[in-house]
Specification:
The chain is α+β, with helices and mostly antiparallel strands. It has 20 helices and 24 strands. The chain has an eight-stranded mixed beta sheet, with helices on one face. The longest helix is centred in the last third of the chain and has 20 residues.
Length: 627
Amino acid sequence: MPHIQLLSPRLANQIAAGEVVERPASVVKELVENALDAGAARVDVDVEQGGAKLIRVRDDGSGIEEADLPLALSRHATSKILTLDDLEAVASLGFRGEALASVSSVSRLTLTSRTEHQEAAARVEVEGRDMDAHISPAAHPVGTTVEVRDLFFNTPARRKFLRTEKTEFNHVEECVRRQALGRFDTGFTLRHNQRVVHSLRPAETDLDKERRIGSLCGQQFIDNAVVIDAEATGLRLWGWVALPTFSRSQADLQYFFVNGRVIRDKLVAHAVRQAYRDVLYNNRHPAFVLYLEVDPATVDVNVHPTKHEVRFRDGRLVHDFIFRTLHRALADVRPTDHLRGASAQSFGREAVAAPAAGSVGEPAAGNSSWSWPAPSGSADGPVPAGPQRQQEWRASDQMGFYQSLNEGGGVASREPHTVAPTPAITPAVGGAEEPPLGYAIAQLHGIYILSQSHAGMIVVDMHAAHERITYERMKRALAEQDLKSQPLLVPLSLAVSQKEAAVTESHGEELQQLGLQIERIGPETLAVRQVPALLRGADTEQLVRDVLADLIEHGQSDRVEAVTHELLGTMACHGSVRANRQLTIPEMNSLLRDMEATERSGQCNHGRPTWTLVTLSELDKLFLRGR
């Protein structure tokens, strides 16, 4: 066994670099964070060959005193914390004090800086086995510039792990994107091989912030996003979450910041996933840019070398706050929110396209409102022939009539009977009382409802829409009645680990609230005595094991609610209006009005969209109008 000996400074720094410096993007992250901590209002990032040849980060921050320059490149040296109390309430992005030392040990690093109190700037470089610092005078404005050349030149094994120039630059760009999303008050410039990729001015107003989000995340994201801003118990969550219809095939548009620091946290991911649970299609991922503001003393950012993970003092409180805020925001989305942009676009047109003379929907003589004839038939048989009476109906009159249709439990619950001729509806298009989803004009192939509004043509999947309406009603009814339990005729015995058994004992009251009565009858044995009445046909053993796994991982579980809602979704699917069911015009309008009043009505409970809009401008393009 060799004798114990002290590592050389360079080797110690190179070992530390293995944790801090993974690729050029890691260097950019550390240098930009230092610039932001220095109070920079402007950060310029220049890279060449994906960062392998050159990384230059310049800022206009407070700078570094000449006497402190050698310390800046030594290990465990920082101006950001002094005592343990500072470490327990870190408000800066960087604080470990080894980034510059680690980077300089695997590259040729030059640091030039000047403070406002200095007449001239100074430059520091390190070289040699002992990494001795050499200081020389330099010309530089107030601020700091760090140049990192030939990354991993002295560790060829590490350099071999670098990917192509394009791949490495993509990581650098993503790093700058995250920092720019985290600090709206700072301007950023990114250049690659002397070509400007991003040039972002400081964003002070809400409009400026949305423009920056649109520039970095795509304008489509902003156009399909809901603004969030909520506060409770010392927490504030604000930002943008995309509508479920703007879901992604990958989790590549998810940015979450805690006190300005971008993180990827299991607790946060779980809360967001819960909020989107029954509005996302299979294997799709939500998109969001969210900011959580908390007391720095309640969050530990020193749990991972790269500081991408954090630990909350009260994780359950944070989880519930994030979930409730997003869940409520998504539930409050109504068709009005979707159609706001389209409406503005349509009202800005010089002329609104009207049906040709003699067609369905032709304006009556001397009347500015539209009228449609009643449907030619229904699911219960043809409508008797004869002239149809034209009658003016205001939105308030329609609502009363539609409500009477639904008194028996909705469209799907009506028993077959002879349908009398229905009066045609003549709402005023674009009028003040026009509802968001407009007025039904026809049914297509017994599957889709066609509706007209001032925004254009709205197509509704009647089964998917009615499925969501029924599902939300059933969820509300269940919540009002509370979850009832049913004793098992023969208790179910489960063999579990000691950890699972201990969790069962410590969370007995919470399990009872979920409708589960579970007793520990041995060191590694549980007895399930009661289950929710609605889930008596479910796989009880798998349900209990999943609940215990959630309690161990997150301190809480929503498995019972998830399985219950899945059952309600199945019941709603079978209880909703089916394809090829012919609906009358009032029935179609009743469904549209119910959609406007129902939470999450933009998607069925399987995550499929329930309606779509074809704007008048899009229709004009199809027929080359205005060219």
